[in-house]
Amino acid sequence: MWFFARDPVRDFPFELIPEPPEGGLPGPWALHRGRKKATGSPVSIFVYDVKPGAEEQTQVAKAAFKRFKTLRHPNILAYIDGLETEKCLHVVTEAVTPLGIYLKARVEAGGLKELEISWGLHQIVKALSFLVNDCSLIHNNVCMAAVFVDRAGEWKLGGLDYMYSAQGNGGGPPRKGIPELEQYDPPELADSSGRVVREKWSADMWRLGCLIWEVFNGPLPRAAALRNPGKIPKTLVPHYCELVGANPKVRPNPARFLQNCRAPGGFMSNRFVETNLFLEEIQIKEPAEKQKFFQELSKSLDAFPEDFCRHKVLPQLLTAFEFGNAGAVVLTPLFKVGKFLSAEEYQQKIIPVVVKMFSSTDRAMRIRLLQQMEQFIQYLDEPTVNTQIFPHVVHGFLDTNPAIREQTVKSMLLLAPKLNEANLNVELMKHFARLQAKDEQGPIRCNTTVCLGKIGSYLSASTRHRVLTSAFSRATRDPFAPSRVAGVLGFAATHNLYSMNDCAQKILPVLCGLTVDPEKSVRDQAFKAIRSFLSKLESVSEDPTQLEEVEKDVHAASSPGMGGAAASWAGWAVTGVSSLTSKLIRSHPTTAPTETNIPQRPTPEGVPAPAPTPVPATPTTSGHWETQEEDKDTAEDSSTADRWDDEDWGSLEDDWSTGGQVSRASQVSNSDHKSSKSPESDWSSWEAEGSWEQGWQEPSSQEPPPDGTRLASEYNWGGPESSDKGDPFATLSARPSTQPRPDSWGEDNWEGLETDSRQVKAELARKKREERRREMEAKRAERKVAKGPMKLGARKLD
């Protein structure tokens, strides 16, 4: 039986990548790139080949091998594994690049920032402080060849070949025998008399000065060049001069050198160093400190190196969310760092966290996700959106916080292209129907109409035929003027999705009714849309052969390319509507007068107008469609309908209370959308109806808007013309005069809006019962007085 000896190199769990070794190492070691056989993860492998007649160098290499295994510090090159045989030594470390090669590559790419150098030198000095002060070891080889950089840009101290004990154990310093390394020795080593007084760290601090000179000025030609600081920053020059002074006694301890450089105004006193120091101790920081750190981190990320953000900040952000309960505060820096990742890295690191965040019940987390969805939507695949994202997002449609409802509507623009048939054409349309018909906030109803027009091209042909005409028609009857404008522009933006019969019989009658709307902006858009539809009908009338071409999209499958032409001339976009309407919502609570008359909507001729209904004194609720008086200059500059393309979706979170204080306020019943049911019961009623025609086409009768509502025509939204021109249509809607309202509701204070309509009704009923009881008691007393006292034995006849 034959036995074969095992090859230790072949059985080693790491392998060299077949390429030439990296240069820059004047010592006995050769640096190779390698990988772990099992996982393929990158590593660096230092290889020393044993040669005959080089016993002294072999002993130095074995000593370095031992030091690597026993020394553990964040700023010293991390040892992973090793192999020692008669022919070679292998030391496996984290993947690194020699500092000389790294600096050369960065110079070619645009140069290295002082922030990076300040943190790199901080790490090297901290490693020297650990060796000298904690381990009583002299490194004896600080130079460019002994410093390495990992993938995060962190500087690591290596080159442990010539290290020796500062206490004299094991003899003196080993002989180097390599001129490239001996040029960094301090001048006092040439004095063999031993009369020079020095500290144990003096030689290493001299070599640190040489390293600083080389980092800023390139390779050191000779020791005399140290007298000229060259490109060394002025804030570092005084401390550098202490390092390369002729008197070794005055060279500072590494710990004191760090302290001097970290002083206010010092070279290492900057945001980058402070961020790194906080990240190193983040596990022991208080939750409040972490929250403040992550809030301020986003402002600094743009100035930080990309590799540092990807490989050091990102893991800490993920860990803080996963285990540290950091919450929504990590989202902004997380998505900012995500821009530096490739698509594959984003899928592996960011998307699992995002999916988990969507299941959170934290309102702040949900609204931040909705606001920043544009940054990660392209990395979400359709199965993930439909099964893990959309079921959680739709809860926002029923949220009591108006800001969350609005952001949920906005997010549908990004999610719609990835939704499946059931979610898009059934589930989403039910929520949109409920929002447009029953939401108490005018801007949300308006944005729902806008969003529907934008995603109309993604709907199936049957859903488009059933929904679009009814939805936009309902919007044109909304008391909120921007909603009526959005309905008109919705028709125009989706003009190619309607048959000629629908255009003539359903759409044009609706648009013609808006030509006498009290608001000039509505009338202007109505006339534009009418001209567009009439020209379309006229062209088909002149040439009937065009009918098939004109109606080609009516029964076509959903396509994101439909409707682009109309949307461009109409000048409508989600960007304009919200920024326009958000200016009209303020969160200042006001108290209504004790008794007011609700102004009536214009009634058709021949129909008697209902008498104004007095309402009891109740605080104004957030559900009222109210507009606020603004400065004329602001209104003329920012609210013209012709400039919607240039605007951006205004954020109503600033106007609504972002802290969730509006949750109860939004539950208050609206006088325009009265319902005895809660939002949940309203939603179930939509489920029970199961009919889009009923949901969209049966709008409630035109009820009077809330007390204090001003005509939107007073804001001069129609264009740059002077607002003092006579408006022939302004008299079409005669409304009773109301008390002037304050200019605002207050500074984000929704506490005064918590009165519920049910409580008001209950209070009224209680008062009526009390009055009835007092009346009955008064009548009984009157009857007793009229009849007088009853006689004993007399029989009561009544």
Which short descriptors sum up this protein?
single chain; 798 residues; alpha+beta; 5-stranded antiparallel β-sheet; 3-stranded antiparallel β-sheet; 12 strands; 45% helix
Ends distance: 132 Å
Low-confidence stretches: 561-756
The major pleated sheet works out as: 5 strands, antiparallel
What structural class results from the helix and strand content?
A: alpha+beta
Tell me what the structure shows.
The chain has 798 residues and is an alpha+beta fold. Helix content is 45%, strand content 6%. The protein has 30 helices and twelve strands. α10 (287-301) runs parallel beside α12. The chain is elongated. Mean pLDDT is 75; it is low at 561-756.
Write the layout of secondary structure elements.
Blueprint: H1 8-11, E1 14-16, E2 30-36, E3 42-49, H2 55-70, E4 79-84, E5 88-93, E6 96-98, H3 99-108, H4 114-134, E7 137-138, E8 147-150, E9 155-157, E10 164-165, H5 179-182, H6 202-217, H7 237-243, H8 254-261, H9 271-280, H10 287-301, H11 306-323, H12 331-338, H13 343-349, H14 351-358, H15 363-371, H16 382-393, H17 402-415, H18 421-438, H19 442-455, H20 461-475, H21 481-493, H22 500-513, H23 520-542, H24 547-550, H25 564-570, H26 574-582, E11 596-597, E12 614-615, H27 632-638, H28 679-689, H29 692-697, H30 757-787
Antiparallel strand pairs: 1-2, 2-3, 3-5, 4-5, 6-8, 7-10, 8-9, 11-12
